[in-house]
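Why should sequence recovery work at all? Because a backbone constrains its sequence more than one might expect. Tight turns favour small or flexible residues, buried strands favour hydrophobic ones, and helices have their own preferences. The token representation captures these environments compactly. In the example below, the structure is given first.
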């Protein structure tokens, strides 16, 4: 939850990025951060699949699962 104060990590990032850098560098940094968090999320999903003993069958269940909100016509 936002408290209006920066954490030490946020302050450190602000100090690091307070300098002027070429746009190309920012693109590279964003790409690196995106890849890092993608790998972390992928690893966590792999762990979850192993812990729950899920496999292709579970993925197929999700692919055919209908979780839509049921809407009722007026008067029902």
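From this structural description, the recovered sequence reads:
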């Amino acid at each position: 939850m936002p408290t209006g104060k920066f954490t030490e990590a946020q302050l450190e990032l602000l100090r690091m990025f307070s300098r002027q850098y070429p746009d190309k560098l920012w693109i590279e940094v964003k790409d690196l951060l995106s890849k890092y968090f993608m790998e972390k999320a992928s690893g966590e999903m792999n762990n979850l699949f192993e812990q729950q003993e899920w496999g292709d069958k579970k993925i197929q269940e999700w692919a055919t699962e209908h979780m839509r909100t049921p809407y009722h016509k007026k008067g029902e």
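A few observations help interpret the result. The mean pLDDT is 91.
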